[in-house]
Amino acid sequence: MQKSRFLFRLLKRRLPVALAVMAGFAVIGLLVGVARPITYKADAILMASFGQIDEGISQSGVQTDEILSLQVIQQKILTRNRLEEIKGKLNGNPDLDIQDLRDSTSINISGGPALRGPSQPIVVRVSFSHKSPEIAADVANEIAREIASWNKEMRLDISARNLELSLDALNQLSRDVEAKTAEVRSFKLSHSDALPASLAILRTEKELYESQLVQLEEERALIEGRLAGGGSKEASEIESRLQEIQIEYETLASVYTSTHPRLKELSGQMSVLNSRGERLAVRSGLEDEAATQNLHDKLHDIEEKKQDILIEIQSLEESIVKTPVIALDQSRIEGELAKLTADHDEARRIARQARSQHLIEQQYMERRIELVEPAIATNNPNGVSFEIFMSIFAIAGLSLGSVLAVTLEYIDKTIRHPADISKSIGIDVIGSVPFIPSDQENLHSILRNRLAPLVIPT
């Protein structure tokens, strides 16, 4: 009961202090709220190709990191040159400053691929704050349109660049394939006698020439035999007998003198045989001369054919020896041609895909990113209003005043007289109020002042 009365008396005596502090803080909050500029915030929302394009068509277009490209655009859109262009599109509003444009613009990108579950739509929120709600909405919408335009141009530029690069690569590979094909053709023409495909033919031709050479040798032997045994049988016998007599004569002549009877006999026989041979030769010479000449001509032809065949055989042997080396070179250049052809086919496929992607981007460019929620002018100020500022400062003042009142009362209750404080800490007391005595202290005072004179005589 005493505590309640004490608190009531405390509130009664110290309430003016708390109210004064609260009023002072409320005034400060009001001044701060009024002095603070009032701004209006406008939001424009973009959505990047979510549900607006068929999934198959979207996958057939240029595959880019949409989040990354939008972040790049976000960085570029806030440069001075781009902000100057935006300001120019808004008729150069004098209330717009480039630095204020940059500081008051907020671009937030959310959505995209998720670690788990389906991808979320990519949402770009463009916010702009200004003291004029109309200007805030116009700037937010203009920045949003610039972002959408840049995103479309970037995708179209990427698809056009991909198409150009793929066509350049295809043309270069076409020239390379043509040059390599000509090289292979020239190689085969210059090494036609030693190509791997003709190795069996070369060996067959060599065997054929060798068999022809054997036949020519046989013909040559026959013709030489006919030439060696030419004339009649009688002439051959005379020739054979004459050779025998000559051998015997030479043998005896080395032992006896020329007057020896046997030598004379042999000499006479040789004379007779020579005479007979000459007569036979004269008689058959006219007949065999044409045949002999013909045989000699055949021998000459056979020799020429043999030389030609030997040259061909030597050439074939050289070609057969060179064939493995030529085969390696041919395999190398044909492998290069095959690789270039495969690269050319792949480049043609990539070029077709790039052309298709470019056409898709041109056709669906306007639907890749859209302004789904344009910014509108609003009368609701952005941030904390001056009423809230005043209320916050008033509550803070009331709290501080209450703390101050309790502190002052505590000081007065603990230290009975201001002089005690001065003596204790050596300073003058500021804000001290008279001490509030308790009921017990009042009773003691009455007893001391009224009963003491009756008990203690004066």
From TrEMBL:
It comes from the Bacteria. Residues 160-226, 299-357 form a coiled coil. The keyword Membrane applies. The chain crosses the membrane at residues 388-408. Keywords: Coiled coil, Membrane, Transmembrane, Transmembrane helix. InterPro entries: Bact_polysacc_biosynth/exp. This is Polysaccharide chain length determinant N-terminal domain-containing protein. It comes from Palleronia abyssalis.
